Amino acid sequence: MPDTELPPAIPAATVVLLRDAPDGLETLMLRRNSKLAFAGGAWVFPGGRIDPEDYPDGEVSTEDDRVAQAARTAAVREAQEEAGLVVDPDGLVWFAHWTPGALAARRFATWFFMARAPAGAVTVDDGEIHEHRWIRPAEAIARREAGEVELIPPTWMTLRLLEEHPTVDTTLAAARDRDPAIYLTHIARVDGGIASIWQGDAAYDDLDTSKPGPRNRLLMLDDGWRIERS
Q1: Single pTM value for the model
Q2: DSSP H helical segments within 35-192, as ranges?
């Protein structure tokens, strides 16, 4: 189905909570109930759909600003609902926005924020969320490669980004210094798996993954995942 014929993706928000630990940067990950329709059993960051109550009351300058404010509210609310943590909305750094491709069973257009984790113990409801873990990004990726955990592409890509920085301060500073990454995903089947393809890739429009040209894609293959970027 062409992207133009797809129903609109559901607005959602995610917050990547970070803390400094003796062995380096850690992030909070939650395991979703395996019976859930979306990402059942996967390890994710706290997040969910933007509810009607998340939108601001009164006039807002533009619709984009209205949605941006709602996304921040939703990210804070989801952190409290799913992990029992109270996040300061002023500390949220918007660093990415993901819209999945046509093969996704349920499509959520998701704002990704990161923030320093607040003090307090993590508590999960054992309903939607079954487990939690503070984990180094490299360890989470290695465990997926070993078949021990399930990750979805935006989570995997975010963990790769976090791998680049040793502390919370350097991670947040880098996110503030660059424009948010916008991932409007096109999906193509390739030998041994599928590819998520983003703007700037030679195959973005026609999905001809074999032709020469610039690369901006994630290859999700049976023998592992890898990024190809020019």
Answers
A1: 0.91
A2: 63-83, 137-145, 153-162, 168-177
Q: Please enumerate in sequence order all residues whose Cβ is within 8 A of that of 18, keeping only pairs 6 or more positions apart, or say none.
A: 25, 26, 27, 114, 115, 116, 117, 162, 168, 171, 172
Helix pair 137-145, 153-162: axis angle to 10 deg: 140
Tokens of 102: 């046509």
Residues 6+ apart with CB under 8 A from 117: 17, 18, 19, 28, 85
pLDDT tens track, the chain, 230 positions: 445 566 788 999 999 999 999 999 999 999 877 554 455 578 999 999 999 999 998 777 788 899 999 999 999 999 999 999 999 999 999 999 999 876 655 788 999 999 999 999 999 877 778 889 999 999 999 999 998 999 999 999 999 999 999 999 999 999 999 999 999 999 999 999 999 999 999 999 999 999 999 999 999 999 999 999 98
Q: How far, in Å, are 1, 9, 211 from residue 104 at the CA level?
A: 11, 10, 25
E-state strands within 22-169: 24-32, 43-44, 47-49, 93-99, 108-116, 129-135
Separation between Cα atoms, residue 154 and residue 44, nearest integer Å: 9
Distance, CA of 109 to CA of 101 (rounded, Å)? 10
Residues 6+ apart with CB under 8 A from 227: 157, 160, 217, 218, 219
Q: How far apart are CA 127 and CA 60, in angstroms?
A: 36
Name the residue among 170, 131, 136, 132 with its Cα closest to residue 21: 136
